[in-house]
Design a protein that fits this description.
Blueprint: H1 2-6, H2 15-47, H3 59-87, E1 95-102, E2 105-110, E3 117-120, E4 142-145, E5 150-156, E6 161-165, E7 170-174, E8 180-184, E9 190-196, E10 208-214, H4 216-225
Parallel strand pairs: 1-5, 4-10
Antiparallel strand pairs: 1-2, 2-3, 5-8, 6-7, 6-9, 9-10
GO molecular function: copper ion binding; cytochrome-c oxidase activity
Pfam family, one: COX2
Cofactor: Cu cation
Length: 226
């Protein structure tokens, strides 16, 4: 079971990612119904002996197979558009961090506080501690409070990168000379792992992202210690 769990994405830790997961299940259910229905109709056509050599048209069935797919697309499009607009919404962030992509590591700045900035490199295999993940853990994690609306500003210093955190449902392109922004809120404490998802060069797969979600009291203590 532990082996299988490491092969899948982490559980959702933000309201947006939960909604994305629900939309995935909703779409897959519709696709499963369509697949079963079409397969059943094909089988009945192959094996029945009902023929009508004089059948030229069927207005009723043609109306049904035109309207039914249109209605099905509406049931997929409406929740999809809702999520699309929610993903771009920035609602009164309580904290802002800035992420800068380099070849091949990330730099972070806590814009609301002075002198809190650091680089985040992937940990070499020889330096990994027990329970840490190879190619996913970093030497400096992003420390953020849970149940807090957080805005992340993303840019790059050299080439195109992409700041992606699957468990938060966020993926932002890091473009040199441009600042893109996104917003998320974490619902529970824990560690979340992401990676650069833009092919940015030879070491593209070696610039992971790790966010550590903690309570607000622990976050304030962390700020004071820095």
């Amino acid at each position: 079971m532990a082996t299988w769990s490491t092969m899948m994405l982490q559980d959702a830790n933000s309201p947006l990612m939960e909604q994305l997961s629900f939309f995935h299940d909703h779409s897959m259910m519709i696709l499963a119904i369509i697949t079963v229905m079409v397969g059943y109709l094909m089988l009945t056509m192959f094996f029945n002996k009902l023929i009508n050599r004089y059948l030229l048209e069927g207005q009723t069935i043609e109306l049904i197979w035109t309207i039914l797919p249109a209605v099905t697309l509406i049931f997929i499009a409406l929740p999809s558009l809702r999520l699309l607009y929610l993903m771009d919404e920035i609602s009164s962030p309580s904290l802002t961090i800035k992420s800068i992509g380099h070849q091949w590591y990330w730099s972070y700045e806590y814009s609301d506080f002075s002198n809190i900035e650091f680089d985040s490199y992937m940990k070499p295999t020889a330096e990994l501690e027990e329970q840490e993940f190879r190619l996913l853990d970093v030497d400096n994690r992003i420390i953020l409070p849970m149940n807090t609306q957080i805005r992340v500003l993303v840019t790059a210093a050299d080439v195109l990168h992409s700041w992606a955190m699957p468990s938060l449902g966020i993926k932002i392109d890091a473009t040199p000379g441009r600042i893109n922004q996104g917003s998320f809120m974490m619902m529970r404490p824990g560690l979340m792992y992401g990676q650069c998802s833009e092919i940015c060069g030879a070491n593209h797969s070696f610039m992971p992202i790790v966010i550590e979600s903690i309570s607000m009291n622990h976050f304030i203590n962390w700020l004071n210690s820095n």
